[in-house]
């Protein structure tokens, strides 16, 4: 291993493609959270800047955490991985001691603050897979001893999150696990012949097994069949995107945010972006995410070791999968599910933890085999 040499060598420059992509998305997020939430905040909290002030605090804290993690050698995380895994399980269970929100128990409430352990768990799984697969090496090509154990560990975390009524993040964990196993050399016949069909079957069972999820699935096919209840949010999203057209109504000019769209600053903020900034704004946001994914893959390909490669793949995949699901939901391309748009949707836990992960990814980019093309 060359870890010892890495510690003595001065780190190089970070990947500015990733850095600027994240900063741009974060800036857009702060602006759009204010624009999307101002009317709702004035009605509910008598303060149009209520959510803006909180998002600004989390954004500043997130930038600080990203800088700290970017300065710490990512190899040092290995020694804490097992401890983080153990600590995350009680946190996932602790949510059941707090009252649910909209039928789901996902948050630990401490006074005015809340923490969502599932946001941490998705990266805990990435840390575990990267460390363990590096040690296993080519053993990952064996199904019983190389694929099944990792699916089992990820499945435990996914099951705990599923019990919180959070199928979306549970799905993200399993999809990212699949991507990491594929990237680490898992056999195609195992992954696509056995694992993928089983994952699709499990997702179908869990979706149809709960009445509210089944209603969402059937409603996704024709939301106008139940426009006042299950189809309401998706229909409002369509109205927002349709009203925005190509160029948008203008920043701050959304009509759907005026209490038509439920909590427009959360999971459906992309619809408000489409209404105010139009198709052009949506394409720009998607382009920034694509640049981030491209640079993340580039960092994974040039990482110093297998551990860095798999960490980069996992972190990049979490953001890629979440952004894809969120945009697909908002545009009616898949059933409605609660996945925030990374760096843009309102939420402190998601933002700070994502920014910490970005710090790790940037640290990996500072320790590559050669200079990355810019």
UniProtKB/TrEMBL annotation:
Annotated transmembrane regions: 16-36, 56-74, 81-101, 142-161, 167-184, 191-209, 268-294, 306-331, 343-364
The reactions it catalyses are: [GlcNAc-(1->4)-Mur2Ac(oyl-L-Ala-gamma-D-Glu-L-Lys-D-Ala-D-Ala)](n)-di-trans,octa-cis-undecaprenyl diphosphate + beta-D-GlcNAc-(1->4)-Mur2Ac(oyl-L-Ala-gamma-D-Glu-L-Lys-D-Ala-D-Ala)-di-trans,octa-cis-undecaprenyl diphosphate = [GlcNAc-(1->4)-Mur2Ac(oyl-L-Ala-gamma-D-Glu-L-Lys-D-Ala-D-Ala)](n+1)-di-trans,octa-cis-undecaprenyl diphosphate + di-trans,octa-cis-undecaprenyl diphosphate + H(+)
**Top-level class of the enzyme under EC nomenclature:** transferase
- E.C. designation(s): 2.4.99.28
* Pfam families in the cross-refs: FTSW_RODA_SPOVE
User: How is this protein positioned relative to the membrane?
Assistant: Multi-pass membrane protein
Under InterPro entries, the record lists: FtsW, FtsW/RodA, SpoVE
Pathway membership, UniProt:
Cell wall biogenesis; peptidoglycan biosynthesis
UniProt entry keywords in alphabetical sequence: Cell cycle, Cell division, Cell membrane, Cell shape, Cell wall biogenesis/degradation, Glycosyltransferase, Membrane, Peptidoglycan synthesis, Transferase, Transmembrane, Transmembrane helix
Superkingdom of origin organism = Bacteria
> What compartments host this protein?
Cell membrane
Please report which protein family the annotation says this sequence is part of: Belongs to the SEDS family. FtsW subfamily.
Identify the PANTHER family for this entry.
Answer: CELL CYCLE PROTEIN, PEPTIDOGLYCAN GLYCOSYLTRANSFERASE FTSW-RELATED
What is this protein's function per UniProt? Peptidoglycan polymerase that is essential for cell division.
User: What's the protein name?
Assistant: Probable peptidoglycan glycosyltransferase FtsW
